[in-house]
UniProtKB/TrEMBL annotation:
<dbReference type="GO" id="GO:0016853">
    <property type="term" value="F:isomerase activity"/>
</dbReference>
<dbReference type="GO" id="GO:0019752">
    <property type="term" value="P:carboxylic acid metabolic process"/>
</dbReference>
<dbReference type="Pfam" id="PF01557">
    <property type="entry name" value="FAA_hydrolase"/>
</dbReference>
<comment type="similarity">
    <text>Belongs to the FAH family.</text>
</comment>
<feature type="domain" description="Fumarylacetoacetase-like C-terminal">
    <location>
        <begin position="27"/>
        <end position="226"/>
    </location>
</feature>
<dbReference type="InterPro" id="IPR011234">
    <property type="entry name" value="Fumarylacetoacetase-like_C"/>
</dbReference>
<dbReference type="InterPro" id="IPR036663">
    <property type="entry name" value="Fumarylacetoacetase_C_sf"/>
</dbReference>
<dbReference type="GO" id="GO:0018773">
    <property type="term" value="F:acetylpyruvate hydrolase activity"/>
</dbReference>
<dbReference type="GO" id="GO:0046872">
    <property type="term" value="F:metal ion binding"/>
</dbReference>
<protein>
    <recommendedName>
        <fullName>Fumarylacetoacetase-like C-terminal domain-containing protein</fullName>
    </recommendedName>
</protein>
<keyword id="KW-0479">Metal-binding</keyword>
Length: 231
C-alpha cells in the first residue's frame, strides 16, 4: 500500500534529559478548572462538572520557540497549565486507578484567541478555532511520573517580560488530575500519546508582539515563549 500524498510526521514533545520524544495522538483541554479563573470568566465553579475541548496534535510547539502573532485576533491570551501525558489507555477508568495511566507531566501554555472565543460564545457557535489554531499548544519537556511522582500541589506561575501575571497552586484545581482522567475516559477511550491540559489559574491576559512569556510549575519545569510579529 502507498499513500496518495506524503503522510504527516507524527507530532511529538521532548522528554527531559533524553533524546527520545513522546508521540502526540490527541490534545484534550479542561475548561475552567481553577475556581478563581472560573469566576474571572463569569462562571460559578461550584455548579459545573469538568468539560473538555481539543487542540490538533500538530498545534504543539516546544520550549524556546518564537511564535508569530496569529491571524484573526487582536487579543491573544496566555494560560499557564499543567499537562498530563497518557501512557496507558483505557475507558471508564476509575479515579482511584487513573494515575496508573499517566506517563508523566509537562509545563504548558494554552494560547487563546480570546476575542474570537468571546464572539463565538455570544453567537452560540463552536469556538474550536479560538483554541485550536497553529502553534497554540506550547508544551515543554515531559518529566516521567516515575521520576517526580504525581504532583497534586506546587506553585504554577506565569510572567510576561518579567512581571508575574498568574500565580496559583496545583492544589487549587477543582478537579484534580485523577478525576480529570476518569471523567474524560467516560467520553472517549484514552490511548497512549494523548495529552490533557488541565486548566489555568486566574490572571489570564493579553500578549503582544515582542513579549516574552515564561511559565513555571514547581517540580515540573519551566518554558519560555516569545511572541513574534504577524506573518
Amino acid at each position: 500500500m502507498s499513500f496518495v500524498i506524503p503522510p504527516m510526521e507524527t507530532p511529538s514533545i521532548a522528554i527531559a534529559g533524553s533524546e527520545d520524544r513522546f508521540p502526540v495522538r490527541r490534545i484534550f483541554c479542561v475548561g475552567r478548572n481553577y475556581a478563581a479563573h472560573a469566576r474571572e470568566m463569569g462562571r460559578d465553579p461550584d455548579r459545573e462538572p469538568p468539560f473538555f475541548f481539543t487542540k490538533p496534535a500538530d498545534a504543539v510547539v516546544g520550549d524556546g520557540a518564537t511564535i508569530s502573532y496569529p491571524p484573526q485576533t487582536e487579543n491573544l491570551h496566555y494560560e499557564a497549565e499543567l499537562v498530563v501525558a497518557i501512557g496507558a489507555g483505557g475507558r471508564e477508568i476509575p479515579a482511584d486507578r487513573a494515575l496508573e495511566h499517566v506517563w508523566g507531566y509537562a509545563v504548558g501554555n494554552d494560547l487563546t484567541r480570546r476575542d474570537m472565543q468571546n464572539a463565538a460564545k455570544e453567537l452560540r457557535r463552536p469556538w474550536d478555532l479560538s483554541k485550536g489554531f497553529d502553534r497554540s499548544a506550547v508544551i515543554g519537556p515531559l518529566v516521567s511520573a516515575s521520576e517526580i511522582g504525581h504532583p497534586s500541589e506546587g506553585r504554577i506561575s506565569l510572567s510576561v517580560n518579567g512581571t508575574v501575571k498568574q500565580d496559583g497552586d496545583l492544589s487549587e484545581m477543582i478537579w484534580p488530575v485523577a478525576d480529570v482522567v476518569a471523567f474524560l475516559s467516560e467520553s472517549v477511550e484514552l490511548a497512549p500519546g494523548d495529552l490533557i491540559m488541565t486548566g489555568t489559574p486566574a490572571g489570564v491576559g493579553a500578549l503582544v508582539p515582542g513579549d516574552s512569556c515564561v511559565v513555571t510549575i514547581e517540580g515540573v519545569g519551566e518554558i519560555t515563549t516569545v511572541i513574534g510579529s504577524r506573518d
